[in-house]
Amino acid sequence: VAIPALAFLNLDAAFARGFNWMTASAIAEQIARPTILILLGGLVVVFVTDPGAGYFVVACVVAYVLAGLVQHLCVRNAVEARVLPGERRAEPSEWLAMSAGMLLLNGSQTIRMNTDPLLVGVMLQPADVAIYTAAMRTATLVSFVMMVAGVVAQPRISALHALQSNRELSGFLSATTRGVFLVSLVIGLLLAASGRPILALFGPEFVAGYPVLLVLIASHVMAAAMGPLTSALVMTGQQVWAASIHAAALPVGAILSVVLISLFGLSGAALATATSLILTQLVLYLLVRRLRGVA
Question: In terms of Cα–Cα distance, which of 217, 215, 224 is closest to 140?
Answer without folding.
Answer: 217
